[in-house]
Amino acid sequence: MFGIVVATHGDFGKELVGTLRMILGENEGVQALALHPSESMETFKEKLEATLKKVDPKNHGALVLVDMVGGTPFNVSLLTAQTHKLQIVTGVNLPMLIKVATSQDEKDLEALALETQKVAREGVLTSVELLRK
Fold first, then answer.
1. What is the model's pTM?
2. How far is residue 3's CA from residue 64's CA, in Å, rounded to a whole number?
3. Looking at domain 3-132, which CATH architecture does it have?
4. Whose CA is closest to 41, among 80, 83, 4?
5. Going by C-beta distance under 8 Å and a sequence separation of 6 or more, which residues neighbour residue 82?
6. How many CB atoms sit inside 10 A of residue 12's CB?
7. CA distance 78 to 63
8. pLDDT in tens, 6-30
9. Taking the domains of the chain in order of start, what are their residue ranges?
10. Which tens digits make up the pLDDT trace of 34-80?
11. What share of the chain is helix, strand, coil (3-state, %, to 5)?
């Protein structure tokens, strides 16, 4: 089973994980990780590594969902992926999080990351598109 970390600026990830638990119930393999304004990259990296130990104690791998490309959660996750089995997906949202939380038993972490990206893209619609159908 893969671990899931939702790493974001501020408490955005914490709120997403709370909403996920409201919908699906408790899931020990999912943790939020918040970057606070006073934290350095080094401090955030230490927090990420500690969180990875919680969600992936057997070192099967983890999916890190981050809020945006180029931000500290993304950059630190990318650095951490050099020494840990990680896949990182940007643009975290609730449909994406539900997908990964219900697919943690998948065999291939890279395939799960790609499927997560697909679900996220398919979930972004406009009312114009919906009304035309």
1. 0.93
2. 8
3. 3-Layer(aba) Sandwich (3.40)
4. 80
5. none
6. 17
7. 11
8. 999 999 999 999 999 999 999 889 9
9. 3-132
10. 999 999 999 999 999 999 999 999 999 999 999 999 999 999 999 99
11. 50, 15, 35
